[in-house]
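Record pair follows.
FIRST:
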Amino acid sequence: MKLALFDCDGTLVDSAGLIHETMRRTFDKFGRPEPRFEDTKAIIGLSLDIAIARMQGRQHVEQEDIDMTAHYKSLFSIVRQDLDYKEPLFPGIREMIDAISGRDDLLIGAVTGKSRRGLKLVMETHGFDAHFIVARTADDCPSKPHPAMVSECCDETGMNAADTIVIGDAVYDMQMAKAAGAKAIGVAWGYASVDELIANGADAIAYHPNEILRHFS
């Protein structure tokens, strides 16, 4: 039996455009310089308040970051509607999830910097609710790369970290997996480079979702 824990943004769904536009409007509202798309992609995976602090060159969250986080959350669904944006699955993701979801020797979960509400929306939009039996979000645990998301998913499912695989596109996913004692698979279609993923502990790199399947054999 193994536990597969998937990151969401940049791993399952391509949400960078939506996140960046919401971030751009938030920074504009607070009179801050407009972030570059590359700056936004670099923080995807972190909990939102920490991400906003990092984008402003701060290592610790200050009150302005908390205020900007609240504004971002209030804007997110509005921007989603403005763009008619459904956070599309990356090519091959649906087929990969369908292939592994019926297996008796595999449990599937999510570990994400999204809010629980945001993750629920993605799961409902793509019909993944029944496949993902456990999840931890930014509402539940400290931000990645803290190992709590992985550890709590293991505890809830009765799995050992050694039998758990974290699949993600960010360096924070790799660092979180290693801190928890789990295996880390980096995906090449997300927002970090392959070199960055390897440097931060990736045990393997998947260049297409169907390559993930071999790690569950």
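SECOND:
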Amino acid sequence: MRVDLFDFDLPDERIALRPAEPRDSARLLVVDPNNGANVLSDHQVRDLTSFLRPGDAMVFNDTKVIPAQLEGVRHREGAPGQQVSATLHMRAAPDRWKAFAKPGKRIKIGDRIQFGHGENVSILGALDAVVEEKGEGGEITLRFDLSGPALDEAIAAVGHIPLPPYIAAKRPEDERDRADYQTIYAREEGAVAAPTAGLHFTPSLFAALDAIGVERHFVTLHVGAGTFLPVKADDTKDHKMHFEIGYVDAATAAKLNAVKARGGRIVCVGTTSLRLIESAAGDDGTIKAWSGATGIFITPGYRFKAVDLLMTNFHLPRSTLFMLVSAFAGLDTMRAAYTHAIETGYRFYSYGDGSLLYRKD
């Protein structure tokens, strides 16, 4: 499909720079393409209990954001040191990370980068790495001198929360972001971007959902920095997705299959949990235990196998995520929904408001 079909104009003031307080007071646009003339309705996130039923199952991504934005100095024999930044996006081994580097063109294989500007970040030593591989679009593979938990400790000491570029361009990261840019149920460290639909949940909202008999299940997909990369191709067939690591355990798969068998609905919180569940589902809709790297690219025409509803934030124009929600609820429906959201003051992107989408029959 043509990528420009997924374009729209977003006023700058619609980009949220902080989350709603409290989190579940954020607005919620309910989009039901199967509901005749009442496709769109305006609510708050805390109204979710009005749209879910006993026996439904919500699927959350429990990945935890790490301070994956690193600043350092590149060293090369016969050349002066140069300031560089690297955003880690996928772990390749206990001592290796794939990263997006700036300025990428000036970095070569064999360069040594000292992060933290020489500060002794832990008792185990400084955080140094060698550029082992170089790919396209500024992607590199870093082999660190540290490994495993020691490397994790050093990254936590010198790294910064990698705010999305549309927020970072407007204000610097601060201490508040360490809490704001994390779900309350984050557990498995490894993401460099938050599963932002989950940022709306609070203990009181969980209690309300428990009270009406909605199940809560967790999967893990470590969101990579590739989620922020624009689609530069003119046609979707020419776009290359970046892979992300995730897993669905056997017990969770069995519970979700039981939900479907008794007539309950699977409600994914965020496009990350949806992409993982759809990666784990067979053509008959049965969800199996699954682990590995997924690069699933969902565009209109995709046949959803397992997911019935999707809770998600408002996404960037021409993005793979806007393509995904258009596949889920219909392109014309989502274009109308985004026009309504812009005209009525919804807040967009990571810290913005949310939507609840019903899958188009």
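COMMENT: DSSP finds eight helices and 17 strands in the chain.
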